[in-house]
Amino acid sequence: MLIDNHNRRINYLRLAVTDRCNLRCNYCMPSEGINFAKKEKLLSIEELYKTAEIMVDMGIDKIRITGGEPFVRKDLMILLRKLSSLPKLNDISITTNATLIGPHIKELKELSITNVNVSMDAINKKTFERITRRNQFEIVQENLIRLISEDFNVRVNFIVLDKQNEEDIIPILSLQKHYPIEVRFLEEMPFNGGSKHFNTIKWNYKKIYEHIKETYPDITKLNSPTTSTSINYKIKGHKGSFGIIPSFSRTFCGSCNRLRITALGDVISCLYGPPKTNIRELVRNGNSDKEVQNVIAEVIGSRAPTGFDAQKEHTDVFENSMTSIGG
Ligand code: SAM
Ligand code: SF4
Q1: With a 6 A CB cut-off, is 136 part of the ligand 1 pocket?
Q2: DSSP codes of every residue in 37-63
Q3: Nearest alpha carbon to residue 155 among 228, 75, 74, 217
Q4: How remote is the CA of residue 291 from the centroid of ligand 1, in Å?
Q5: What pLDDT, in 10s, does the model give residues 83-136?
Q6: Whole-angstrom Cα distance, residue 232 to residue 108?
Q7: Domain 12-325, what architecture?
């Protein structure tokens, strides 16, 4: 079992498989001038699998595949097939923009990879296209409905963006009104490749909640696992539920159970902090699994207590882009 220096059990790895994406969400990356990593700097499928094996052996039992957009990697399914054969890995989840998942839905179900988070920051086509800077609304909608009808465990992630998609907050809740899925509202974080800087946000978790309550006063708070980053609620009469993630306010650090590995292999022990080591280099330089595990154990043994403390460890946090870290 992996326990950090603040007595938090670490069992959840967010593994980014690429920094590339077919969308250009304006909260995530600039419209152009992005320095995508050279292919040889990305972890190969074998290296991603080796990383997963090493981490699972240390006590990780949940891996979320993220990116960039995971499905822009043509060899993604090879990795997923291999991961699904790891006996101690209880949960493989994916975070995707749902543009390219369509052809893989059947096989994902066969592999029992049914926890899929779909990022969809608007239910209005024009708003969606303005935010993502691409015309992919219909396919996202189609794939979302397919995932729901195929009984996937779907969560829709919606980042509340000041003056961009506020008007879609209530309409997007219709998804969880009619289907047994979760819609989660996220606070925006200043991780957009340096194209935007801010120290405060208008749409914090309290404001999002108050806004929803104006339309739906009959809200019950649900019990959530202690490691959950979202505060979860049920609206009376709705089939699904909704959650709010204080990703900017960071109220959940005390129970953080996660570790991140970026598309380039950087190991990040807190989303707000700098990388602590690089697993691609460790694996490529011929270190044994045990040697790699010793380095990871050191990283986990020196985690910052909160995201605010981790942020002080470096000065250029706002230059980071989610497209490499994976959210
Ligand atoms: N391309 C996939 C997608 O969009 O779901 C996976 C990668 S994306 C970087 C992972 C998550 O990070 C998404 O849910 C996205 O909404 C979130 N994200 C990206 N930039 C963010 C930001 N500035 N603030 C909050 N969340 C962000
Ligand atoms: Fe791509 Fe996801 Fe970033 Fe949007 S949030 S640009 S879909 S990586």
Answers
A1: no
A2: PPGGGSPPHHHHHHHHHHHHHHT--EE
A3: 228
A4: 32
A5: 999 999 999 999 999 999 999 999 999 999 999 999 999 999 999 999 999 999
A6: 27
A7: Alpha-Beta Barrel (3.20)
Do residues 144 and 118 touch, judged by C-beta distance below 8 A? yes
Distance CA 189, CA 201 (A): 9
Three-state secondary structure call for residue 72? helix
10, two tokens: 């670490």
Order of strands across the sheet that contains 231-235: 219-221, 231-235, 241-245, 182-187, 153-160, 115-119, 91-96, 62-66, 12-16, 258-261, 266-268, 277-278
User: Which ligand is nearest the CA of 121, by number?
Assistant: 1
- Max intra-chain CA distance, the chain: 59
- Of the chain, the percentage scoring pLDDT greater than 90 comes to 82
The pocket around ligand 2, CB under 6 angstroms, is made up of: 21, 23-25, 28-29, 67-69, 97, 119, 322-323
